[in-house]
Amino acid sequence: MTAHLHSPSAPLELRQRFGSPPTVTRLVSAETAAAYAQRRSSEEVTEPSAERITEHVDVVLSERGLPVHLWWRERGYDVIAEPLRWFARRRWWAEDARAERGRAGLVSQEVWRIQIQDPCTAERSTVDLGRSVPAERWRLLRIHASPQETEAVE
Amino acid sequence: MTFTHLHVASCFSSHYGTATPGELAAAAAAGGAEALALTDRDGLYGAVQHIDACTEHGLKPLLGADLAVKDHGRVTVLAHGSKAGYTALCQAVSAAHEGTSAVTSGPEVALSRARLAQLSLPASSESPRLFILLGVESDIGRLAAARDYRGARTALRQWRQALGAAVYVELVSHLAPPGEELSTAHAARMLSAAAACRVPTVLTNAVRLRRADEAATADVLDAVRVLSSLDSAPLQPNDQGWLKPEAEMHRLAAEICDASTVAADPEDILSVTEELARSCQLDPTEHMTYGVPKIPEAHVIGIARPADEELRFRCEQGLGQRLAEPQVRQRLEHELAIIEELGFSSYFLTVAEVVRLIHELGVRCAARGSGVSSLVVHALGISPIDPLSHGLIFERFLSQRRATLPDIDIDVESARRHEIYQRVFDRFGRERVTLMSMQNAYRIRGAVRDAGMALGLPDEELDQLAEIMWRFPAREFRQALEEKPELKQLAQRIETERVSGRTQLDLLVDLTERLDRLPRHISTHPCGVILGDKDLLRLTPVQPSGVTGLPMSQFGKDDMDSAGFIKLDILGVRMQSAIAHCLSEIERTSGEHIDLNTISFQDQRTFDLIQSTHTLGCFQIESPGQRELIGKLIPASLEDLILDISLFRPGPMGAGMVRPFLERRHGFESIRYPHPDLIHILEETCGVIVYHEQVLRIFDTMTDCGLATADVLRRALSQEHTSAEVESYFRTRTAARGYGQEVIDQVWRQLASFGSFGFCKAHAAAFAVPTYQSAWLKTHYPAAFMTGLFEHDPGMYPLRLLVAEARRLQIPLLPMDVNRSKGHYRLEKLPTTPPLEPPADPTWGIRMALTTLKGISAAEIRRLEKEQPFHSLADLRDRAKPRFNTMKSLAKVGALDSFLSAGTARNRRNDLFAWIERTGQRKAQQRRPPLAAGQLALPLTDTETSNLPASRPGPTDTEVLATELDLTSVDLTDHVMSVHWEQLTRAGVTFAKDLLHQRSGATVCVAGIRVATQTPPMASGKRVVFISLDDGTGVVDLSFFEEGQAHTGEALFAARMLMAEGTIRRTGPRAVTVQATRAWDLQESSS
Q1: pLDDT digits (tens, 9 = 90+) for B383-421
Q2: Residue of A26, A85, A107 to mutate, interface with B, max B Cβ within 10 Å
Q3: Can you give the residue ranges of the Polymerase/histidinol phosphatase N-terminal domain (chain B) (predicted)?
Q4: Using the beta-carbon criterion (under 8 Å), do B461 and A27 form an inter-chain contact?
Q5: What is the layout of strands, in order, in the sheet containing B130-134?
Q6: Shortest CA distance to A21 belongs to which of A93, A94, A92?
Q7: Residue of A86, A92, A98 with shortest CB distance to B175
Q8: Which residues pair with B79 in a beta bridge?
């Protein structure tokens, strides 16, 4: 299922989102810059089993503000099981050009991990969605190969 | 149900929090909270601001601190809402700081759990005095993060055992990624540990931000705290540590309970949180004696009768015969009545006692500030100024209508300030005294450096950047890039880099702006001493200060009034030390004892010196701007000096008061008074309002409001939101009392434009005395005075400029000599050549001090002083045991020339240095056989120096100069610019000594070393940069207006040596400045 997830526009978006050259100026020596670039690129690999993409999706929320339906590439999915949300850090000083007072969403990105089920095939998968609050825009960030379990506390 | 944040860090949690207590309280109130805690890391630094802000926003205040407990991590300590609770909190914070060091990196701030338990647990069955919240940074939190469930429970049981009902588990979720620290799962693990041990749980958000968008600032602070870049610093997981409103907090509670395996009800957690919040609500007045002045008890000050009676008795004693004068008696009664009514008699007696202690130590001291307005202060011997003869008004200092506590400032010799502090502590008892602290906030240069460090920019780059930044608010960096000519190059660079996709400098600008005004570090206030009663240390936490062995309060000067702390400013003034050294040198060399309190204030020669504007080294009147003003004003009396000092203030300068005053003073404009009633008020200043005292009298005379109300009106005048009220009051009352519309209009215009900018005459009068005294000493004892200046370097200029001034005054400058120089600069009588007839004044020179030598240690100086004189190199090595490097420096700078055979001196200096360098290390280690008993050490000829191999030529003049600058920072033998003179003369440079003879408007080129840079406020609001250059013949004062600044660029603030082109502007009969059209870095243009 993951194979056909790439939309034609994904490579461009990927470039825009992650592929921009690291913002290192001439103030730093060439070696430092190289070492830095190395570090940056190695961090891109988060989870070997997950595919990292970014694609716009639509999410229908419940009254409590929890996702119940996901619309992706003109197909609807049901959200099954309780979703999990967190805020993931962004390396804004390497990714953004500006950091002026009051800029929102600089330091972290809201992430929702939901289990979805294709109502036709009953196929289940776990996906991570990114949410930008002011515009209420959702992006598909990752599709996990195997369903992720939430932590059980002893 | 409401939600109360129990764990909140403000920006007073240094390099951690991002918002001020005021901002946090405003946000909490806006979010519907009813109460708010402030729990800063390691202290109560923001407590008073928090109380004030909570009061303003209608919130109930709670106080606590985030403290490290030895071996158990960080916990939140909350004070129970009672006097005992607040006291225990102060004591816990102080205890955590015990044994730490203010300067070096000593032990961490922390207290033991046993001590915490002792402070927290009550004697009986009352509530604990302190509550302990165990959150993510506690040992429990760490163990839970590591999924050590058993460990967490064991640790929690220990806490429970040690602190019983005082212990709570603090649940925090910053919604970090699953499994990580500060994730919901982490909180759920804490919840189950609490449930297993039956410890109650509360919910907090471990707040360090007011809003999520402040998180980038916190990232920078995290990096700076560990002196690292953002890439390698341990950063917060995300931006969720903000002051979330009730609904969000309720949702978090639900999410934590959902994630938990134990059955937990979010409602329970929230109601326990609110219950705890309720029992921690503080009543500032009742629990903290907020706003109630605290003064040492009568028995401590040493008075037997009631304070009011004692004060009256001492004042009457002090005034003696003068009490026969009706106005003196009347003034005294008036002041005493107000002081008695306000209950401040013992405060005045306390200050008098401190001054007595200072006199007892033989330290020079002078009162300063509005306290000088008081006859009581004068009568008690605190101030030499008689307020009646200068028209000073008591109500400017104290009245029933002044909300603030009295404040008397005392200037003392800076070199002996700590000695006085120790004495005050000893005298009043260590439980009643503490030094005050101050928070140092980020300003542009520091902000650029730290933001740059976080971004990983190299240090050298940051040094260069910081150098071109000149006093603008860091918050306005981006705007400054557009406006300031010295930043133009930088702005262009940022633009170029942005185009090529590099944005590091762009980020630097944004981050610098974010850091602006955040507290950076705390330090001992330069003069504030808090005096209280025996309970003082129950009301303020203290920590070690920069002064050995003395504690300082965590509160600063703006906290004093609100909290009801009485502070005394004992300010170390280097000029007082310089004067003291000058007087003691005169006494040492000539036996003459001078009492400056008895000198005449009408000495013509002293005023001749002042009018000549050669006032370098004189208190208050040595800056370029002041020399210019003196040149225009031509002071001829102490009153004129008071006027001069009052005019040279940001207010009057900025309001453009100076010009109209000078025009009238010199008769270019006629003096008019709006109404005959005002003549006696304004005639001392030619009809212009200069002093606060005049504003008070105008209000009082025209509205009959009384002087106390007049002072309230004066202060309201300068506030934008109240000045309209003042105006309508003034207009109504004056009209009712029969003043004509035209008069009212005219007086109001003057009040509105100048009234709020005037200067307190009492301040100026207090300053004028040491100003006159220093000028008097410079006139009559120039060599001794310069010796004092060299010793304490009291002013704004570098020592080398003072040395140049001594050279200009033809005072012989005697080089460092290991047989004659001491640890201090000293006057030395020069051998007079025999034909000179005996009555001639001996010539006095100034001998350079050993302290001037770089790298010499205090111990070495002590040994040298003790063993002087030395008859040979070997003798010097033997008895004074200087280190090898010191020995070399001494030789190089010429301090060992006296060991060389007579007449050869400097010519053999290089040989001597080479000899020491070659043999010194070995010789230094050789032990000479000890002398047999009874055998005298014969002063043999120095075989070492007489057999010195001759191989090198002596140093040239330029080399000598370079060595002096290198090893002493002072060009003693000649002016450092002298090496450039020939070249500069050829280039057509005009020297300072010749500028006075140039006609106004002439174009000149000048050059020299920068000795001062100033940007005083201007009436126009536009920046003018004043730079003073020392060219060896005197000082050239340059002014740079817009055009000059634009043509100069980065060199404006960065270059050390400048060459400038401009036109002569005559500013007075004896003063000229050069209005620069452009300037270059001399070192860059010559290389």
Answers
A1: 989 999 999 999 999 998 876 778 889 999 999 999 999
A2: A107
A3: 4-71
A4: yes
A5: B35-41, B60-69, B73-79, B130-134, B167-171, B201-203
A6: A94
A7: A86
A8: B130
Radius of gyration of the CA atoms of chain B, in A? 34
**Contacting A residues, span 38-67, partner chain B, CB-CB under 8 Å:** 39
Q: Burial of B272 by CB count in 10 Å (0-12 exposed, 13-18 middle, 19+ buried)? A: middle
Residue A21: closest C-alpha in chain B: B501
Nearest CA in chain A to B211: A102
pLDDT of residue B6: 98
DSSP sequence for B549-585: T-EEES--HHHHHHHTBEEEEEEEEHHHHHHHHHHHH
Distance CA B759, CA B268 (A): 60
- Rounded-to-integer distance, Cα B1011 and Cα B1030, Å: 6
Per-residue confidence (pLDDT) for residue A53, from 0 to 100: 65
More confident residue, B924 or B773: B773
Instruction: Report d(CA B675, CA B430) in Å as an integer.
Output: 57
Q: Measured between CB atoms, does A108 come within 8 Å of chain B?
A: yes
Under a CB-based contact definition with an 8 Å cutoff, are residues B384 and B366 in contact?
yes
- How many pairs of residues across A and B have Cβ atoms under 8 Å apart? 125
Which residue is closest to B459 within chain A, CA to CA? A27
Inter-chain CB proximity B502 and A98 less than 8 Å: no
Q: How would residue B179 be classed by pLDDT, with cut points 50, 70 and 90?
A: confident
Give the closest-approach CA distance of A150 to chain B in angstroms: 8
CA dihedral B545, B548, B549, B553 (to 10 degrees): -20
Contacts of residue A111 in chain B, CB cutoff 8 Å? Answer: 177
8 Å CB contact of B258 and A82: yes
Q: Shortest CB distance from A106 goes to which of B177, B216, B502?
A: B216
Confidence grade of residue B902 (pLDDT, cut at 50, 70, 90): low
Mean pLDDT computed over B997-1009: 93
Asked if B239 lies within 8 A of A87 by C-beta distance, the reply is yes
The answer to whether the CB atoms of B185 and A28 lie below 8 A apart is no
3-state helix, strand and coil shares in percent for chain B, rounded to the nearest 5: 50, 15, 35
CB contact under 8 A, B216 and A107: yes
Kindly list the residues from chain B whose CB atom is less than 8 angstroms away from the CB atom of residue A24: 502, 504
Is the pLDDT at B941 greater than 70? The verdict is: no
CB B643 within 8 A of CB B390: no
Query: Touching check for A153 and chain B: CB below 8 Å?
Result: yes
pLDDT band at B924 (very low <50, low <70, confident <90, very high): low
Optimal mutation site among B238, B256, B465, interface A, most CBs of chain A within 10 A: B238
Beta strands in B820-883 (DSSP E): 826-829, 844-847
Q: Which of B440-449, B642-651, B930-939 has the lowest mean pLDDT?
A: B930-939
Within an 8 Å CB–CB cutoff, is residue B455 touching chain A? yes
Residue B46 near residue B40, CB atoms below 8 Å: yes
B233 touches chain A (CB under 8 A): no
Structural domains of chain B, ranges and CATH numbers in brackets: 21-288 (3.20.20.140), 298-440+522-576 (no CATH), 443-517 (no CATH), 812-968 (no CATH), 978-1086 (2.40.50.140)
Letter string b/e over residues B953-987, b meaning 16 or more CB atoms within 10 A of that residue's CB: eebeeeebbebbeebbebbbbebbbbbbbeebeee
| Angstrom distance (rounded) from CA B429 to CA B423 | 10
**Surface of B (459-478) touching A: CB under 8 A:** 461, 478
Q: Which residue has the tokens 């610098």?
A: B512
> In the numeric block, which tokens belong to residue B907?
């010519």
Question: Residue B591 — very low, low, confident or very high, per pLDDT cuts 50/70/90?
Answer: very high
Q: How are beta strands A67-72 and A75-89 bridged, if at all?
A: antiparallel
